[in-house]
Amino acid sequence: MIVSKNVRCNNCGREYRLRYSVGNNFPQSASFYCKKCGDSLTFGTSDGLAPISQGLTILEGYFEAEVINLHPEIPIDPDRETDKFYFPNLEFMNKDMAKDNFVGFRRAQISNVLYYQKWKAIADDFRLLVEERWDILVDKYKLTQSEVEKKIVDEVFDTCVIFLEGRWEQIYNEVLQALNAAKKSPDYLRLLNFWEPYKQEFFSHKLYELMRQYHDVSDYLLPTLLSQKLGHKPEGLTSSIKWEKIEKVYGDFYEVFGDLLIIPACINNLLARNNYELFQTPNFTISNFIETDKAGRCKNFLTNLQLAPLGDFYNASLRNGTHHKTARINKGKQKIVLKTGKGGKSEEVWSFVSYTEYCNEIYVRCLILSLIFRKAFS
Ligand SMILES: [Zn+2]
Fold first, then answer.
1. How far is the CA of 54 from the centre of ligand 1 (A)?
2. Whole-angstrom Cα distance, residue 291 to residue 146?
């Protein structure tokens, strides 16, 4: 369904005719930068009917004005951003059905909606658990402390699993196979002892903060999710731009993932050398690994084909360029120009859609490793 509304930018008065494609989650919204003054303008709906807006005024009636197509869940074709006969949903589905993947499309949609709903249902209790508010939780659930803890953590991990759809589910299953093979190593129990002190951090505080942050910016990361779950490289324009809201997201997820990388590193060491501490480089151990810069932490397991996909989308240049605010941003063209190399001599150009793709990919890898870590103890 496309909702058409005439709107006016509150800052400069420029008028637009929005063609907003209604997505699956509510509330939902899309944002764009005013073509005249650059202000961020948001339009959406709380329940499919009632409009919500920020930075703009919704006008009564219909009149011709510059068309802006917005879709909260699908990238917009740049050549058709202002085309009044453009139907992003139909074109996306046609492209996908041509690949005989209508079931995949529905599954990806359901995964997005269910994940969103399940997270909202468990988020408050997960926060209480992280804050160790046992009195409130025990009273609410009428269970013992350890029973409550198990129930909430189980629910959180069920939520993570729902996010893994398509290619991501495959990656998870492959890493799980590597873990199961590592469990057969005589050194596995020693590894569990080494991992034990990380449990509290990986299962509660770190995972909560990661999932909370993802939810806070999920509107801005949603436009590429369907494409990614279907295994297409997302291309085009995002309809949810608020760069200032997401500029640090990749770097923040990168840091969490960098910490979680001790998991595949140890699994690979067990499989390759029957000793979780030893890397291929002589005299380089897990203690050295923990002290190293995070940038090189995927290299050690890339020869293991089941673990290797974890290293895709781990990009130190993107992390440094966006996290340190040294990137130049072109809001109109949706481009990010990163300074890379020694002294920032070279430049790399990224689209907002690619940046969004990378945020989602690194997020899902954090979920996969959290799930694997849990499986390691079961
Ligand atoms: Zn304006």
1. 12
2. 34
**Which of 66, 93, 120 is the C-terminal boundary of a domain?**
93
Distance (Å) from CA 57 to ligand 1 centroid: 11
CB contact at 8 A, 307 and 299: no
Q: What is the pLDDT of residue 291?
A: 94
* CA of residue 40 to ligand 1 center, whole Å: 8
Ligand 1 (ion): residues with CB under 5 Å are 9, 11-12, 14, 34, 36-37, 39
DSSP result, 85-124: T--HHHHHHHHHHTTT-HHHHHHHHHHHHHHHHHHHHHHH
Q: What's the average pLDDT block by block, 10 residues per block, for the chain (378 residues)?
A: 94 96 88 92 86 94 92 91 89 70 85 95 97 96 96 96 94 98 96 95 92 95 92 89 90 96 98 96 95 92 97 92 84 87 82 96 98 95
- On whether the CB atoms of residues 247 and 322 are closer than 8 A, the answer is yes
Q: Are 276 and 335 in the same domain?
A: yes
**What separation in Å is there between the alpha carbon of 10 and the centre of ligand 1?**
7
Check residue 96 and give its pLDDT: 61
- Separation CA 300–CA 230 (nearest Å): 29
The structure tokens listed for 319 are: 């992390």
Domain with 35 in it? 2-93
Q: Which among 93, 121, 155 is the end of a domain?
A: 93
Residue 152 CA to ligand 1 center (angstroms) comes to 46
Distance 67 CA to ligand 1 centre (A): 15
- Say if residue 11 is in the same domain as residue 69: yes
The span from the CA of 124 to the CA of 142, in Å, is: 17
